[in-house]
Write a structure and sequence with these properties.
- The chain folds into 2 domains: 163 residues, 3-Layer(aba) Sandwich (Rossmann fold), CATH 3.40.50; 199 residues, 3-Layer(aba) Sandwich (Rossmann fold).
- By secondary structure, it is α/β, with parallel strands linked by helices.
- The strands form 4 sheets. The protein has a 6-stranded parallel sheet with strand order 5-6-4-1-7-8. It has a 6-stranded parallel sheet with strand order 11-10-9-15-16-17, with helices on both faces. A 3-stranded antiparallel sheet has the order 13-12-14.
- Strand 15, helix 12 and strand 16 form a beta-alpha-beta unit.
- It is built from 15 helices and 17 strands.
- The relative contact order is 0.12.
């Protein structure tokens, strides 16, 4: 896959329209987590160092094409200024004379933040006319918002076709990591996929069984696969109507040579609450009045062994109800082993998805992974083998 990076495009004296994702969580008027803001810093600094003027395009929340004051990016400006350590000039509009004036008033070392792109109805419609209005503000387009790349919006897709373009440093890192995991990976490859429902990850599972050597399935999804094999799972979360689909996935895996790993032992309880009394049983031994809430120690031991024999790991979703101890044990143990193997240089580890990041952070393992994607939907769609419009536009 070939896309231009900041190294491949002239920036000196240019106004660089830079699409970022700073759709951050808020507590009142305060940004409660600056992770997404912090991650754009390398791109901003690089553009400025190369003589470009940074103009940020971004969305916030879902105003649905209307001006909603509480969804103004002006609320983000103070946190952005603090993180970047630079003066941030906020433009109360993202097109036209107001935006042009803000850009003209900025020094080359400043950062200009334009108002919420989703205040325009044409943004989510990928309107070329709106993209042309954006394009009129600058000379070069840089997309640093992989997390928004699965949407064909005016500021993520059409705008890339209107100006010379490149991937920002965060986008570049995401694309390289994902290509290393699924495009041209070091083998053997193991994918760990967890979560509640098979129905939400059908495309993902269908794509992975044709691309990886091992697929470990955990969480409520694993229960559905157990049911598909005729195993009773008591009161456990399971999509019994998806049993035929689960069997089809198992058949496809057999045809492609992908080895599926399901729990061989499980942790069961009769209550879903912290500290609930629990017991370990084999996968077929869940009592009728109990529910499976985590993978058991033998399952974890087998998963660790497969990781130890693998060169690449892709992880999406927890192995159990990790939010509530003691049902986080399998996820934590497996995550720590993946971190250990990565730190030892024996494993390339790539993970993504909201629950996944939270689980790895809880295990204290996230920092050791080769790459952690915070992209959510875009990461999932990439793993599903789908074309991402914002990435495809950079290849044009």
């Amino acid at each position: 896959m070939s896309w231009k990076t900041l190294d491949d495009i002239a920036l000196a004296g240019k106004t660089v329209l830079t699409r970022v994702d700073i759709n951050v969580p808020m507590e009142g008027d305060r940004v409660s987590d600056t992770t997404r803001i912090d991650k754009i810093r390398p791109t901003v600094e690089d553009i400025i160092a190369r003589g470009g003027k940074v103009v940020l395009l971004a969305h916030f929340d879902r105003p649905k094409g209307k001006v909603v004051p509480e969804m103004s990016l002006g609320r983000i400006a103070p946190a952005l200024e603090a993180s970047l350590g630079r003066k941030v000039i906020f433009a109360t509009e993202s097109t036209g004379a107001v935006a042009k004036a803000a850009i003209a008033s900025a020094a080359q070392s400043d950062v200009v933040l334009l108002e919420n792109t989703r205040f325009h109805a044409g943004e989510e419609k990928n309107d070329p006319a709106l993209a042309a209005e954006f394009a009129a503000l600058g000379d070069v387009y840089v997309n640093d918002a992989f997390s928004a790349a699965h949407r064909a919006h005016a500021s993520t897709e059409a705008l890339a076709r209107a100006l010379p373009h490149a991937a920002g440093r965060l986008m570049e890192a995401e694309l390289k990591a994902l290509d290393a995991a699924l495009g041209t990976p070091a083998r053997p490859v193991i994918a760990v996929v967890g979560g509640a429902k098979v129905s939400t990850k059908l495309d993902l599972l269908g794509n992975l069984v044709g691309k990886v050597d091992h697929l470990a399935i955990g969480g409520g999804m694993a229960n559905t696969f157990l049911v598909a094999q005729g195993i009773e799972v008591g009161k456990s979360l399971a999509e019994r109507d998806m049993a035929d689909t689960a069997r089809a996935i198992l058949k496809k895996a057999e045809e492609t040579g992908c080895q599926i790993h399901l729990p061989v032992d499980v942790v069961v309880a009769r209550e879903f609450k912290a500290g609930a009394a629990s017991q370990i049983t084999n996968a077929s031994g869940c009592p009728a009045d109990a529910m499976i809430l985590d993978a058991g120690p033998e399952t974890v031991a087998r998963l660790k062994a497969v990781m130890g024999q693998s060169a690449t790991l892709i992880w999406n979703g927890p192995l159990g109800a990790f939010e509530i101890p003691p049902f986080d044990a399998a996820t934590v143990a497996a995550a720590k082993e993946a971190a250990r193997l990565t730190e030892a240089g024996r494993l390339i580890s790539v993970a993504g998805g909201g629950d996944t990041v939270a689980a790895l952070n809880q295990a204290g393992a996230a920092g050791a992974f080769t790459f952690i994607s915070t992209a959510g939907g875009a990461f999932l769609e990439w793993m599903e083998g789908k074309e991402l419009p914002g990435v495809a536009a950079l290849l044009a």
